[in-house]
Every structure is written in C-alpha cells, then in structure tokens.
Amino acid sequence: MNQQETPSAAKSEKSKSILNAVLIGFLIGIVLYSIYNNSLGLLTLIPLFFIFRLLNRPQKDKD
What we know:
The protein is an all-alpha fold and 63 residues long. It has a domain at 23-63. Helix content is 83%, strand content 0%.
C-alpha cells in the first residue's frame, strides 16, 4: 500500500466498524424486546446467530 491508499483503507475500516456496531446494537435490541415479551424462541435465536456472525467476520477480513 502506498501513502494515498492508507487513509482510504483506514476510513473504510472505520466505516465498517461503525456499521457493525449499529447492526449489533439493533439486533441486541430485538433480543431484549423478545425476552421482555416472554417469547424466548426462534425469533430470539435468529438475531443471536447474526450477532455471532458479525462478531466473527472481522477476523476473516484481516487475512
């Protein structure tokens, strides 16, 4: 990478991090709403699966 690509790559990484944080927060909100309504079931497990996938994705992107 040259010096011109470095700020662009850093900005892209920051953008991805912010998007992941927003998505994880939204999905956690869905889980908490589901638990609050006493409906622990498939609709609670789906967001948990997506949270797991979002948290493990950055490890693959670094390679």
